[in-house]
Fold this protein.
Amino acid sequence: MEVIQTQLLLEAITKRMAVVKRAIRKAEQEKDFPDGHLSVSKNPKQCRFYLTTEDGNLKKQYIPVGQSEFVRALAQKEYRQRFLNMAEKEIKILEDLQVLLKKKNADLVYEKLGKVRKNLVSPYIVTDKMYVEKWQAQTFKTNNFMAENKIYDTQKGEKVRSKSEAILADICFGLGIPYHYEKPLKLSDGRVRYPDFTLLKISTREEIFLEHFGLMDDDEYFTKSLEKLDEYRDNGIYPGKNLLFTYETEDAPFDIKGIRTMLKELFNV
């Protein structure tokens, strides 16, 4: 990814705030600590612990060996207080930064330009919205092989080859995952393939390929599907990295709910 988008930074801030606030709540639940403070005396041979109290005069009392739980409680007490002080300061900084980024960030300079001026300048930061619009506006020739089989309509207004592909397209469209249907992919040896879907993962600006294997009961189709996966692997396209695949058989129907959940989690939508 070329730049860290403001939205990603805001999301990171929100996540960090949630982590710190959970920790604060956990720390605040710890109470009933012993009075006094822990002092530690160390030398190369041993480590001694002392209870320091203030009752008009500073008092320091040796803690005998065997009172490890008491020592731990004193140490936890001081750690807790230091943690709460620092955590509250961090939350304040994060909240201020959150407000600042929402109202004042470099991306907004371009976003607030009029349409005429936007057409006259080249933005220094390409926002996610701009990147998606440009990616989605790509033009290309799709696979013309048996074009007459493209009879299923999608919500995006295109035609695909199967009912399952139409469902996949509509899931992506509904989740806001940008995609191209049968966008040509040039392999290392110069041959061109047409993955069923090329998806854009906005957060990382990666292209992820999605293939649907719809006739896995058929032996010939099954063999060709494995060959396709091997071909992808030979070109640096691996399942779980930049390749997803879905499938169905007579005994294992298309899992619409499971696929929607998978795409939501993988694309953070």
Q: What stands out?
A: The longest strand covers residues 47-54. The mean pLDDT is 91. The domain at 128-266 is CATH 3.40.1350 (Trna Endonuclease; Chain: A, domain 1). Helices lie at 6-29, 68-103, 107-111, 115-120, 128-136, 163-175, 219-234, 256-266.
